[in-house]
Amino acid sequence: MKEFVTGIDQKDHGVDVHLEGEPIKKGKLDKLSELCRPDGPGCESDCCTPEFRAQVEGIDVEGMDGNVTMHVRGAVTAAEIAANLSKCDCMDEL
Hints:
The protein is an alpha+beta fold. 32% of the residues lie in helices and 33% in strands.
């Protein structure tokens, strides 16, 4: 998924992740946000560990297919999000 990231912005209460490209589907990212929310089950990839999910208050997804922003709320940093995205293959599983 990292190859579709066009920007990661640190915010006061979380991180915004901007994704663009043909394979980026809003519905898939909605499902991914369900997996990685604090009480979610996580996914097969090791990018969404219980420790990471404990830092996340919530994930909101907005946009349309091909151009989506994920708003990750909580005590997470842009560096943590970038590291997680570099090992995330969850989109392939959805």
